[in-house]
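Journal club prep — side note

Before the paper discussion, L.F. wants everyone to see what a predicted structure for a comparable chain looks like in token form. Sequence:
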Amino acid sequence: MKLLVLANSYKLGNRCVAGIDLDTGKWVRPVSQLPGGSIPEHKTAVSKNGRFVTVLPLDVVEFEVGRSKATPHHPEDVELKSAFSLIGKMTIAELRAKFPAVVQEEGPIFGNYSDRIPGAGVSSNGGRSSLMLMQVSRFGFDKTLNVSGNPQFRGSWGERPEHVDLVITDPEFVHVRQSLASGLIIGALVTISLGEELKGAHFKLIAAVLPLGEIIPSASF
């Protein structure tokens, strides 16, 4: 399979890779045999310019797939049977031209504006997608503390009652913005993924952020 990567995010101490199948234009999430299908970080690395680095959004990779591993909350999951091989890269303009239906305008996320979906709701969603790419006009981000007291970034956009506020699990975003307490990006493409069940709900996660315009820091450490 040839995949346009649109996320390589944190998941259960490992990574979650997802993107668009170049042949079908559909979302795919390759998964391992580990809990939740997460992939060890080193297995998401590819050879790039003479060194091994983790795949990034807009990279194009090739890999062997096994059987479907679809679940009610992750209908896109397929078995990862080989290492990733980097075969190219795509620009945002090329993404829009080749897959115009993939980029969605601001609106409900998996049916509503909440940050989660109850487990029972996912079980009866009829295989509805758990991945999406949304264009956001004004993407705000803040560094906060999670329930365990550890730092985390959250991303938000929209006005109430259509306000969205979700945890960011994009390692590249966290690394690049780690010195900032908050900020605003004027235009961004945001990959959103539905997480594994936690305390009876599946949380919506920002798995990747692709800035389109100016990044305005609001505060820094």
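L.F.'s comment for the group: The first strand starts at residue 2 and ends at 11. Keep this in mind when we get to the figures.
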